[in-house]
């Protein structure tokens, strides 16, 4: 392994490697078989110990705020990952159990437990539980960011401009892919049978999951191969326009990698290198894309890692809370209920289109996400109510809801990672966005017409 990989690897308890039947990789965040340092570390240690590798995934029907849409996309990806692991002689066993209990169930047979890293509260708590209750050594491998979060910074950063130089200093050390290691002791069969992933829809029905909101496979199908096809098309057709068009929802010159990154079905480093290593691409477009997938994404990771209450209104910077409180009694007209918003029934056709895109596809162009959120703040009876509604809709409909990027994005609506602007009603000095701005910057009516066609 590369010398910098050691910075991604952390022993979580004081136990030694014990006599066991396998090295167990508890796969939860990094749901992929390629470019996954946690998996390659497990293979490397298994080779050292003369053991096979088993991968376990815990599937619980009550994952925090997850629904049918999220599960279907995830299981489509896991089925592909299971196939790729099997080709390497590694069984991927999906157990119907809470993730930490699934890891501990198979961990009793293991010489060593390897896990990937998550940044949200429940992800951290699950890993701490496994480390505390396992009977063998537990090692965590950070493989879903490019620069490890504690190396990039030791505190919650104020904005992209404060974390950018810190990441840039470390980038050459960490922007690389793990070596794919051949497993010496392959397994064809394993004595614990997991869930059958061949047809996710009946599996979800058996778990008691209602199809609400519905799956969006026609727009976003889960899995690394679907992600790569989408990324290849983006590079071929849209990348050279990215620096000029990434804020134009009418043109959709974006990669759409958010859902795949959220479930760890692709590696951020692999995507960054694919763009960085292009010989004939527009340099400004390359730089703009790398800014998003490295600096902006890792700013979000930094936010949730160092901000325990990242999903609560109180997480906002003091200046933003103060100015919003000063204008909390400002008249608000119109006001819309949650039911009206979910039904896409406001006076604003651009906002309605954005909401319809979200409900129908599980995705929304990032510039429209900003506008969509700002209008909910404007049309809600209080900033706190706007926060609650935004987070609810974000986590229910977006495939990449419940993600560090999503929590940072919701926070940005209220001033997180931003600065003060000119004072105005309702917003105070928090940034405002208007329909006239959309009309000035892009052909927003073309976007609305395209989204309207989704109803056909």
Automatic annotation (TrEMBL):
Photolyase/cryptochrome alpha/beta domain location: 21-149
Catalyzed reactions: cyclobutadipyrimidine (in DNA) = 2 pyrimidine residues (in DNA)
Transmembrane segments: none
EC number(s) stated in the UniProt entry for this protein: 4.1.99.3
Coiled coil: none
InterPro entries: Ald_DH_CS_GLU, Crypto/Photolyase_FAD-like_sf, Crypto/Photolyase_N_sf, DNA_photolyase_N, Photolyase_Class-2, Rossmann-like_a/b/a_fold
GO molecular function annotations of the record: deoxyribodipyrimidine photo-lyase activity; DNA binding; oxidoreductase activity
Iron among keywords: no
Keyword list, A-Z: DNA damage, DNA repair, DNA-binding, FAD, Flavoprotein, Lyase
Cofactor entry: (6R)-5,10-methylene-5,6,7,8-tetrahydrofolate; FAD
Keyword DNA damage: yes
One GO term of the biological process aspect: photoreactive repair
Enzyme kind, highest EC tier: lyase
Residues the record marks as active site: 105
Family of this protein: Belongs to the DNA photolyase class-2 family.
Protein name in the entry: Deoxyribodipyrimidine photo-lyase
UniProt source species: Desulfatibacillum alkenivorans DSM 16219
